[in-house]
Design brief:
Elements lengths: L1 H4 L2 H21 L2 H21 L4 H11 L4 H7 L4
């Protein structure tokens, strides 16, 4: 609640910090550290989504839409801009 009260920009900043920490643990090969940081990343992703009124169900729907599509094909299908 305190992080949400600080606004979407702070939520996004915290998500980024946690993502970097997860990357560091992945590079180090620390499975336990990566597990812990991945939990932080997921938590802060949910907070960031909430801060912008994006439902997790909408994210899951988007993932389902992409299922069976290669990453390159999906990226090519995005509007240019």
């Amino acid at each position: 609640a305190r992080l949400l009260a600080k606004g979407p920009e702070k939520c996004a900043e915290k998500f980024g910090e946690e993502a970097v920490e997860a990357i560091i643990e992945a590079v180090k090969g620390d499975k336990s550290g990566l597990t812990s940081e991945a939990a932080d990343v997921l938590f802060h992703l949910l907070v960031m989504l909430q801060s912008r009124d994006v439902a997790l169900s909408d994210v899951m729907t988007e993932l389902a839409r992409r299922q069976g599509t290669s990453g390159l094909a999906e990226k090519a299908s995005r509007p240019k801009g």
